[in-house]
Design a protein that fits this description.
By secondary structure, this protein is of the alpha/beta class. The protein has helices spanning about 40-45, 70-75, 90-100, 105-120, 135-145, 165-180, 190-195, 215-220, 240-245, 275-280, 300-390, and strands at about 1-10, 15-25, 30-35, 55-60, 65, 75-80, 155, 185, 200-205, 210-215, 225-235, 250-255, 265-270, 290-295. The strands form three sheets. It has a six-stranded mixed β-sheet, with helices on both faces. Strands 2-1-4-5 form a four-stranded antiparallel β-sheet. The N and C termini lie far apart (about 135 Å).
Length: about 400
C-alpha cells in the first residue's frame, strides 16, 4: 500500500530525513513514533505530497507521489496536528465542503457525507456551528473531513492531543474501526495508545529509522530484567534479608506502604530467571504473607526510551569515530608536513655544512698563502741583509 524507498529530505545544511525505507501493508494500522524533531512530520508531509523528497521514492497504492501526484494524493486522507477547521461552518457544511474539494459530486457526495457523519458519531451535532463544539467533537469533524471520499490510506498526526480521557477513548475506538477498512498511519506521543491500536510500530530518530516491529516484540527485545511486584504483610521486617535467602535476587525495592499495613516491593532478577516459585516457597518460611504477586510487564514507553537512548549513544560513538578519523587525517597531514620540514632542514643543514667546508678550505688556502707570503718576505729580507754585509 505504501512504500518509502531510500528517502532523504535536506534543508540547506540540515538533513531532516536521512535515507529511510519502510513499507505499510494494505489494511495495516502502523504507529509512527519519534521524539520532537526526529523527522516524523517531515516524513508524513512527503508521503502526502505536501513537500517533495530531496532523494528517494514514495509509492502510495501503486502511484509514485512525485510522478503521479494527483492520483497518489487521491488515495490519502490526511489529518494534521491541530487540524484547521472553518468554525463559521456547520459540521455538515464543512464535511460537504471537504467532499467538494475532493471532487465528489451528486449522489456520491451526498451519500459519502452522510456515511462519515454516522461513522464519526456526529449525527446529533451535524447542524451545529463548529465553533460551538467541544474539542473532542472538533477532532471528530477533522477526522470526518479526512475520511470523506473513502481514501485507501488515512494518516493521522497526533489525533488525540489536548483531549480529556473520555474523548481520547472515543477517538481511539474510532481509529480502531478505521483499521477495518483503511490503511492507517498514526503518529502519537501517547505510547500506550499506540500499543493498544497499532499492529506495528516504526520508530524514527535524528532522521533515521531506529526500529520496525510489533509493540510486543519491541517490549520483549528491550527487556533486560525480570521484575516482580509483590504485596506482602511482613510484621518482622524479614524482607530486608530476602536476598540472603534467594541469591538470584539482584534488587529489592520498597514501592509503597499501604494503609492495611501491607507493603509493595519490586523484586528484580536476571531476565532469564523467574523467581515466582521460589518466593512462594521461601516467604511463608520467613513469616511473610503474600497478598499479591504479579510480573511487571515491559511497556512500549520503556522500549521507546531505550531505543532512542541506544541510538543517541551510537550516534555519539559515530561522531567520536568521525572525529578520530579527522584526527587521524590531521595527524597524517601533520606527520607529512613534519617530515617535509625535517627534509628541508636536513637539506639546509647539508648546504650549510658544504658552505662551511668550502669556506674553511678557502680560509685554509688563504692562511697558507699568507704564511707563504710571509716566508717569501722573510727570505727577501734575509737576502738583502746578506748582500749589505758583503
Amino acid at each position: 500500500m505504501i512504500e518509502v524507498k531510500n528517502v532523504t529530505k535536506k534543508y540547506a545544511n540540515i538533513t531532516a530525513v536521512n535515507n529511510i525505507s519502510f513499507s505499510v501493508k494494505d489494511g495495516e494500522v502502523v504507529g509512527f513514533l519519534g521524539p520532537n524533531g526526529a523527522g516524523k512530520t517531515t516524513t508524513m508531509n512527503m508521503i502526502t505530497g505536501f513537500i517533495e523528497p530531496t532523494a528517494g521514492q514514495i509509492i502510495v497504492n501503486g502511484y509514485d507521489i512525485s510522478k503521479k501526484p494527483k492520483k497518489a494524493k487521491k488515495q490519502i486522507g490526511y489529518m494534521p496536528e491541530g487540524v484547521p477547521l472553518y468554525t463559521e461552518f456547520t459540521v455538515k457544511e464543512f464535511i460537504t465542503y471537504m467532499a467538494e474539494l475532493k471532487l465528489l459530486k451528486g449522489e456520491q457526495k451526498k451519500n459519502d457525507v452522510k456515511k462519515v457523519i454516522e461513522e464519526t458519531g456526529l449525527s446529533n451535532v451535524e447542524n451545529k456551528l463548529i465553533r460551538n463544539l467541544s474539542r473532542g467533537y472538533k477532532q471528530r469533524v477533522g477526522l470526518a473531513g479526512t475520511l470523506v471520499g473513502n481514501p485507501a490510506v488515512i494518516i493521522l498526526d497526533e489525533p488525540t492531543v489536548g483531549l480529556d480521557p473520555k474523548q481520547i477513548t472515543e477517538i481511539r475506538n474510532l481509529i480502531k474501526e478505521l483499521g477495518k477498512n483503511h490503511t492507517v498511519i498514526l503518529s502519537s506521543h501517547i505510547l500506550s495508545e499506540v500499543s493498544q491500536i497499532c499492529e506495528r510500530v516504526i520508530i524514527i530518530n535524528n532522521g533515521k529509522i531506529v526500529a520496525v516491529d510489533t509493540p510486543e516484540n519491541l517490549e520483549k527485545k528491550t527487556k533486560e530484567k525480570n521484575t516482580l511486584l509483590v504485596t506482602v504483610e511482613d510484621p518482622k521486617n524479614n524482607m530486608k534479608t530476602l536476598k540472603e535467602k534467594i541469591p538470584q535476587i539482584e534488587e529489592i525495592k520498597l514501592l509503597k506502604d499501604n494503609e492495611d499495613n501491607t507493603k509493595q516491593y519490586s523484586i528484580t532478577s536476571n531476565e532469564q530467571v523467574d523467581l515466582r516459585k521460589k518466593l512462594f516457597e521461601v516467604l511463608p518460611k520467613e513469616e511473610i504473607t503474600i497478598f499479591e504477586l504479579k510480573k511487571s510487564e515491559a511497556t512500549l514507553e520503556e522500549a521507546f526510551i531505550k531505543l532512542i537512548d541506544l541510538d543517541k549513544s551510537n550516534s555519539q560513538n559515530d561522531d567520536e569515530i568521525s572525529e578520530n578519523s579527522k584526527d587521524t587525517k590531521k595527524n597524517k597531514k601533520e606527520k607529512k608536513e613534519k617530515q617535509k620540514a625535517e627534509k628541508e632542514e636536513q637539506k639546509e643543514k647539508k648546504a650549510k655544512e658544504k658552505l662551511e667546508k668550502k669556506q674553511a678550505k678557502e680560509n685554509e688556502k688563504k692562511e697558507k698563502h699568507e704564511v707563504n707570503k710571509e716566508k717569501n718576505s722573510k727570505k727577501e729580507q734575509n737576502k738583502k741583509e746578506k748582500g749589505g754585509k758583503k
